[in-house]
């Protein structure tokens, strides 16, 4: 072999070795890779509208939210929530809250942050408003309940209390403790 051929073979070998070095994987070998952990792939909705029905399948209430997201523990988190009963239900209440949680295994909706219940009466002087920072609503049984502080305004009168149980279809409110009010005739 001539010196020129030997030089060519050495350069070719060096080029192959350099190509292999540059193309090898930088990370650990494939045997060392950790197993994949499953990611939660729940759904999310923007401008969500969820309908609740009674035993006959008739519309009972609707939940509207700016954002709804399924969590990995069988619950749905809502932001900027509004709950309205169907006109046929005879329940004239509308519920607004900053956040709400609905669990698959529980019939109650946990409402948090500036919770407001408004009785949409036809007479503005008869309008009733219930305010709290936390409330639980059982929409199928028309029951709202809290152990937190509540403020109830009806017309020009207002009452505050700690804890409340309200039956929305009967328009009955039971206050539990520390009841204080301001009644102006």
Brief overview, please?
The protein is mainly β. It contains one helix and nine strands, in the order H-E-E-E-E-E-E-E-E-E. The termini are far apart.
What can you see in these coordinates?
The protein is mainly beta. The chain contains one helix and nine strands; from the N terminus they run αβββββββββ. The protein has one helix spanning 3-23; strands spanning 44-53, 59-70, 75-85, 93-103, 109-119, 128-138, 143-154, 157-167, 172-182. The protein is rod-shaped and about 120 Å long. The termini are far apart. The mean pLDDT is 85.
How is the topology of this model organized?
Elements (H helix, E strand, L loop, with lengths): L2 H21 L20 E10 L5 E12 L4 E11 L7 E11 L5 E11 L8 E11 L4 E12 L2 E11 L4 E11 L3
Antiparallel strand pairs: 1-2, 2-3, 3-4, 4-5, 5-6, 6-7, 7-8, 8-9
């Amino acid at each position: 072999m001539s010196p020129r051929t030997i030089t060519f073979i050495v350069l070719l070998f060096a080029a192959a070795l350099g190509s292999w070095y540059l193309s090898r994987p930088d990370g650990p070998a494939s045997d060392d890779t950790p197993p994949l952990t499953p990611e939660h792939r729940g759904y999310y909705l923007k401008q969500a509208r969820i309908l609740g029905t009674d035993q006959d399948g008739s519309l009972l209430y609707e939940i509207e939210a700016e954002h709804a997201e399924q969590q990995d523990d069988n619950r749905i988190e809502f932001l900027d929530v509004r709950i309205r009963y169907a006109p046929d239900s005879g329940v004239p209440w509308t519920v607004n809250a900053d956040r709400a949680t609905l669990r698959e295994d529980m019939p109650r909706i946990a409402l948090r942050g500036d919770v407001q219940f408004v009785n949409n009466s036809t007479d503005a002087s008869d309008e009733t408003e219930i305010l709290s920072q936390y409330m639980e609503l059982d929409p199928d049984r028309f029951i709202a309940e809290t152990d937190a502080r509540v403020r109830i305004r009806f017309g020009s009168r207002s009452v505050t209390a700690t804890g409340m149980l309200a039956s929305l279809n009967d328009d009955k409110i039971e206050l539990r403790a520390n009841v204080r009010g301001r009644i102006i005739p």
